[in-house]
Design brief:
The chain is α/β, with parallel strands linked by helices. The chain has one domain. The longest helix is centred in the first third of the chain and has 12 residues.
Length: 87
């Protein structure tokens, strides 16, 4: 199953994460304050959701959605992801 990583869990990020869970996707949400501050959102989203750091959400996601204020775009992790090994 595809996992969607969310960098930014405000109004837009949390709404899109809910829609993704409702559509059957696994989601990893993150914010600038740390994963421990997302416990209520993760509980609301259910078992297909978990919280991580922004770097963790970017690494976990097959697709990554960035929903941060424009002034914060320089803090978004931009390191290239390692390609998955295929057997």
């Amino acid at each position: 199953m595809t996992t969607i990583g969310f960098i930014g869990a405000g109004n837009i990020g949390s709404t899109v994460a809910k829609l993704a869970v409702d559509a059957g996707y696994d989601v990893v949400v993150s914010n600038s304050r740390g994963p421990e501050t997302l416990a209520d959102l993760v509980a609301e989203l259910g078992p297909k959701a978990r919280a991580d750091t922004a770097a963790g959400a970017a690494e976990a996601g097959d697709v990554v959605v960035v929903t941060v204020p424009l002034k914060a775009y320089r803090q978004v992790p931009v390191e290239p992801r390692k390609p998955e090994e295929k057997s």
